[in-house]
Each structure stands twice: as C-alpha cells, then as structure tokens.
Amino acid sequence: MISYADSGVVRPGLPKGKDDYVRTVLLTELLADCLPRLPWYLRELQSALEAGSTDLEKVCLALKVNPAICENFARIGCMAEPAEPIRMPLDHLVVLLGKQRVWTVAVAAFLLTEIDNNWSSVAKREVASIALARANAAVVRAKADEDVALDQVYAGGVLSVIGLLPLVEASGVTDHAPEWIEVAAEAIDKQREVFGTDFLELDRWVRMIWRLPMEMSYAVAEPVSVQPYVPEHASKPLGSDQGIRNLVLVSRGSV
C-alpha cells in the first residue's frame, strides 16, 4: 500500500504505465475490484429489457425489489412529464420511457441510492453532492429546450460522476473528501498524479460495462476544461470492438 497525504491509500499496480496492454489489464483490474456491483434485481431488469418481447410485469417487479431505488426511479422518471408533475403508476412510466431510458434512469437511481444514504462515507456523500448539483444544473439549462427529455438530462447529470466511484473505492478514503474528489481541471490533474488515470477515462469504461449511452446531452452542468486522459497513455476499453458482452469482470477471490 502507498499512502498519499489527504488522498488515502492507493494500491501498487494502479494504471500508471504507458504500455497499452498492461494499462488495459490494470484498468480492468481496478474496475473489477472497485466498481460497485449492479445488484441481481438490476441484472434481472437488464435481461427483461433486452428480451425481444419485453415482459412489463418482470420489468416492474425488478424495479420494485429495492424501495429506495424504485422511489428514485419514479422521481426521476416522472420528469418526463414536467407539464403534469404527478406520480405516474410504475407500469405507465415504464411504457412512457421505453427500454433505453428505463435502463438509464434505473442505473442513475441505483447510483444515488448507493452513494447518498445514511451509511455512506463522507467521501461518497461528497460524490453524491457533486452528482446532484450537476443534475439539477443540467435540468435548469435544458428547460429552455422543449424537445429534451428532462428525465434523461437529470439521469445524465447524476451519471456524469460515475468515474469517481472506482477512485474513491481504490483510495480507501471514508472519513473526509480529498481535494481530487471533484470534476474541475485541478482535481483531474490530481487524479492523474495519484492514480495514473482520471474520472473521465474511467467514465468511458463504466458506461460500456453498464451499457449506458456514451454521450448524453446536457449531462454535464459545467464543461470540463481538460481533455479525457486518452492520447498516448490510455487504452481502448476492452471489448469495445465486439461489444461489452465479451467483457466479464470478476473480483479477486470470486468464482
């Protein structure tokens, strides 16, 4: 273990090398060990949504397993009808949104539940605070465009911080929020210094693994003034040519 002042503990072997193959392996290992696992009921939801003929009952049952996720899903999903701010029945909401939007909102609901709860660490709550601020700011900016789906705008704002989660987990920080837990250029430079990667690069990987849209309009409340960490250092996400079905992440010690 290597300790960094105010940054937590970082394991040797995090991707600081320039070799594409080695970097790919190390990034995959980082995500396998430090990316939150989608729970079984979201995997069931994903399976139901990807079926040729979608079973609406199965979709709704999967969403209802975790009440907190279901509540977040309904709150975000109902933004699809801003003219009538009412609580729609879950099955009506699923039909209104369609498959891809349902999945995006469900993952955003899961992420909020994962990082913004009574037992979340200080570091995760800081990530949640950034996510909510970016989501709310994105909605404000998008309201002028009548053709934009506000549920996707809000979900995109929440999901814009997913690249921070593996870094928080890898650092082991729980009792404070290090200076690199941010999305500004200075924080990104610190992430690269400490981890050899940044949340922008990891964001691309996580979107592929979780099968999220790679680009979402209005997703970022404030444009990041630095380029993703990709030129000569970063590798192409493993499985990007054949599709994410070929990428399987298994934690150490798992069977």
Write a brief structural summary.
The protein has 255 residues and is mainly α.
Q: In percent terms, what proportion of residues is strand? A: under 5%
**CA radius of gyration:** 18 Å
Helix content: 40-55%
Distance between the termini: 25 Å
Mean pLDDT figure: 81
Q: Which residue ranges are poorly predicted, with pLDDT under 50 across at least 5 consecutive positions? A: 1-5, 221-226, 228-255
Quaternary organisation:
single chain
Largest sheet: 2 strands, antiparallel
Tell me the number of helical segments per DSSP (H or I, 4 or more residues long).
Answer: 11
Q: What is the succession of H and E elements?
A: EEHHHHHHHHHHH
Overall structural class, as computed from helix and strand content, comes to mainly alpha
Keywords, separated by commas or semicolons:
globular; two-stranded antiparallel sheet; mainly alpha
Structural commentary:
The protein is mainly alpha-helical. It is 52% helix and 2% strand. It is built from eleven helices and two strands. It has helices at 20-34, 40-50, 56-64, 67-77, 90-97, 99-115, 122-142, 150-159, 164-171, 185-195, 199-209; strands at residues 2-4, 8-10. Strands 1-2 form a two-stranded antiparallel sheet. The two termini are 25 Å apart. Mean pLDDT is 81; it is low at 1-5, 221-226 and 228-255.
